[in-house]
Design brief:
2 copies of one chain form a homodimer. With 138 residues, chain A is an alpha+beta fold. Chain A has a single domain, classed as 2,3-Dihydroxybiphenyl 1,2-Dioxygenase, domain 1 (Roll). The first copy, chain A, has an 8-stranded mixed β-sheet. Chain A is globular, with a radius of gyration of 15 Å. Chains A and B meet through strand 1, helix 1 and strand 5 of A and strand 1, helix 1 and strand 5 of B. Chains A, B: GO terms for molecular function: methylmalonyl-CoA epimerase activity. Chains A, B: This is Methylmalonyl-CoA epimerase. Chains A, B: Its EC number is 5.1.99.1.
C-alpha cells in the first residue's frame, strides 16, 4: 500500500514564470533551483509546501512527454500525483498483481530514488507516480 | 501566504467505485464516509493519506459544477488543490490585492470552515481552493 504524498506534479510552459508565483504564495525560501532531467525530457523545480511539495515541470527537448499535456492545457495544470513506497520492486509487483498497468521499468526520478508511473486509466484518471522513499527518511 | 496542502480534489463519476480503489491503496480505515454538500452540488468522500487527504468528488444534481469536468474527463481526474490559511478574509484580500480572481464570497466548505476558490487562470491552470484551518488545529 501507498505512503505519503511526496509531491503534486504541475506542468507549466515556463518554470521561471511559475516560480515567481510560488515565491509569492509560499515564500522565497520555499522555491528550489530548477534542474534538467534529460532522460525524462523535463526540467523540474520543487516548491516546499509545509507538508508536501509541488513539482513544477517544463518540457525539455522536442520529444518531451509534457508537450501533449500543454497542447491541451496551454496555461499548465495538475499533471500527476506522486506517492512514496518503501520498496519500488515490491510496489511494481503489487500493482501488476491487481491488473494495474505499470508504465515501463523503475528508473531514477527527480529525487534520486527509483520511480515508475501507473496508467491513469487504472487510477481513476489520475496519472500516478510511485517513488521509493529516500533512504534514512520516514 | 499559504499553509499546508489540506487536500487534493479528485473528481470521479462514482465515489463508490473510487472508494474501492482507495481502500486497496491506503487501507480500509483511510476511506471515510461519503456525504452530500447540496449547496455546492457535490457529494464528497475524504481519504486519509499519511500527510494530507484526497477528496473524492462526485456530481450531485443536474447543476453540479463537476458535470463539465467529467464531460471532458469521463474517467475522472485531478480537479483542484486546497491549501490552508489562518484567516479566510485576510487571504481573500491578499489574493485580490495581487490581481488574482477570487470566485465568490467565502462559504462553508466540506471541512466546516470557510473556503473560496481562486481562478485557475491566475494560478497556472490549477483550480485552487483556499480553506481556513479548523480551529484548534495546526
Amino acid at each position: 500500500m501507498l505512503g505519503r504524498l511526496n509531491h503534486v506534479g504541475v506542468a507549466t510552459p515556463s518554470i521561471a514564470q511559475s516560480a515567481e508565483r510560488y515565491r509569492l504564495l509560499f515564500g522565497d525560501a520555499a522555491v528550489g533551483e530548477a534542474f534538467d532531467l534529460p532522460a525524462q525530457g523535463v526540467r523540474v523545480c520543487f516548491v516546499d509546501v509545509p507538508n508536501t511539495q509541488v513539482e513544477l515541470i517544463e518540457p525539455l527537448g522536442a520529444d518531451s512527454p509534457i508537450h501533449g499535456f500543454l497542447a491541451k492545457n496551454p496555461a499548465g495544470g495538475q499533471h500527476h500525483l506522486c506517492y512514496e513506497v518503501p520498496d519500488i520492486h515490491a510496489a511494481k509487483a503489487w500493482f501488476e498483481a491487481r491488473g494495474m498497468r505499470v508504465l515501463g521499468e523503475p528508473r531514477i526520478g527527480a529525487h534520486g530514488t527509483p520511480i515508475f508511473f501507473v496508467h491513469p486509466k487504472d487510477m481513476g484518471g489520475v496519472l500516478t507516480e510511485i517513488m521509493e522513499s529516500p533512504r534514512g527518511e520516514h
